């Protein structure tokens, strides 16, 4: 496999990520100052090898590095040369883990939800994983839902030939990931009143809230349906810190039907934001976050004078 030059340099993230002022009348008319915490720019841009579509592409691991960094250090400390993790067909976490494995020379295995996908062409997200050397193992959805059960997990790892691998959970959210994301909140201390982030598994929100100052609060915008995320965030904080940390809340109205689902209204909003501000808007997480913050602002959820930061987790 071809390797990029200056590997030691490319592996170094560049925190703190930029905090960018955005002038948008949808916020300014209500006296709210919108800032973008550009965590998508935290890592030096890494050139990919030629992908399945042909041209050389660029991929900044960005926010996922916060979750992966301490886990990668632990895997190295344990002498593990293979990483195994879990995700759906459009998982950014799978892509980031595959990229990290390629850069570090580690084998990676992705356990993918849905065995019906095994005989279909890979979508662009999974194709990128495979192009970076990740071995994909597709499992039935029922087994995937039960992967936290020790006997089911053991069988999944055995079937994936990954019994000796370092295991990263779905979305990368574990104790080490939450502690890695705590620095995100620390970088925003004294700079904003509310820090908002789109949520999948809750790990980034758990760490963000823990890192903020007592007079700041964190807001999570789930991208999946269901009321499970609050319990997950509380459990992650308890595991990482021994109990709750920081002030945080969830606003669950903006998932647009579930993970990786969008629709015309969200697509129009994201395209408009791109045109107004000259930046790409990732659709699965970031678009839902920004749409939700605009709607909440219009509803009067934030007092005039609020400094509102939206954490941009991916490009």
Describe the structure.
The protein is α/β, with parallel strands linked by helices and 315 residues long. It is built from 12 helices and 12 strands. The protein has helices at residues 7-10, 25-28, 64-77, 92-104, 124-131, 141-145, 150-159, 175-187, 203-211, 229-241, 264-277, 286-298, and strands spanning 19-22, 33-37, 46-47, 58-59, 82-87, 107-113, 134-139, 166-167, 194-199, 217-222, 248-250, 307-311. It has a 6-stranded mixed β-sheet, sandwiched between helices. Strands 7-6-5-8 form a 4-stranded parallel β-sheet. Helix 8 (175-187) crosses helix 10 (229-241). The radius of gyration is 19 Å and the shape is globular. The two termini are 25 Å apart.
Shape: globular
User: What topology, given as strand order, has the largest sheet?
Assistant: 1-2-12-9-10-11
Judged by helices, strands and strand pairing, the structural class is alpha/beta
Largest sheet: 6 strands, mixed
Produce the secondary structure layout.
Layout: H1 7-10, E1 19-22, H2 25-28, E2 33-37, E3 46-47, E4 58-59, H3 64-77, E5 82-87, H4 92-104, E6 107-113, H5 124-131, E7 134-139, H6 141-145, H7 150-159, E8 166-167, H8 175-187, E9 194-199, H9 203-211, E10 217-222, H10 229-241, E11 248-250, H11 264-277, H12 286-298, E12 307-311
Parallel strand pairs: 2-12, 5-6, 5-8, 6-7, 9-10, 9-12, 10-11
Antiparallel strand pairs: 1-2, 3-4
Helix pairs in contact: 3-8, 4-5, 8-9, 8-10, 9-10, 11-12
């Amino acid at each position: 496999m071809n390797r990029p030059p200056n590997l030691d340099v490319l592996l170094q993230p560049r925190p703190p990520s930029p905090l960018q002022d955005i002038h948008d009348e949808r916020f300014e008319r209500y006296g709210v100052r919108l800032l973008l915490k550009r965590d998508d720019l935290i890592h030096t841009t890494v050139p990919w090898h030629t992908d399945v579509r042909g041209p050389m592409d660029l991929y900044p691991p960005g926010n996922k590095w916060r979750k992966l960094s301490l886990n990668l250090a632990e895997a190295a400390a344990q002498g593990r040369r293979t990483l195994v993790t879990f995700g759906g067909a459009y998982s950014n976490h799978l892509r980031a883990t595959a990229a990290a494995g390629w850069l570090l020379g580690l084998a990676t295995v992705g356990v993918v939800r849905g065995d019906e996908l095994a005989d279909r062409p890979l979508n662009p997200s999974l194709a990128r994983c495979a192009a970076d050397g990740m071995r994909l193992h597709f499992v039935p959805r029922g087994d995937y839902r039960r992967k936290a059960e020790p006997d089911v997990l053991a069988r999944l790892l055995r079937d994936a030939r990954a019994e000796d691998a370092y295991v990263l959970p779905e979305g990368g959210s574990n104790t080490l990931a939450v502690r890695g994301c705590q620095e995100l909140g620390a970088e925003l201390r004294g700079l904003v009143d509310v820090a908002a982030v789109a949520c999948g598994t809750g790990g980034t929100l758990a760490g963000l809230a823990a890192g903020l100052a007592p007079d700041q609060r964190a807001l999570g915008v789930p991208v999946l349906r269901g009321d499970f995320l609050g319990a997950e965030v509380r459990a992650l904080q308890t595991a990482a810190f021994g109990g709750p940390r920081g002030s945080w809340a969830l606003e669950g109205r903006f998932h647009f039907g579930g993970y990786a689902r969008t629709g015309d209204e969200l697509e129009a909003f994201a395209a408009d934001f791109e045109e107004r501000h000259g930046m790409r808007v990732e659709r699965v997480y970031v678009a839902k976050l920004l749409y939700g913050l605009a709607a909440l602002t219009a509803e009067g959820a934030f007092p005039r004078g609020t400094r509102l930061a939206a954490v941009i987790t991916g490009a």
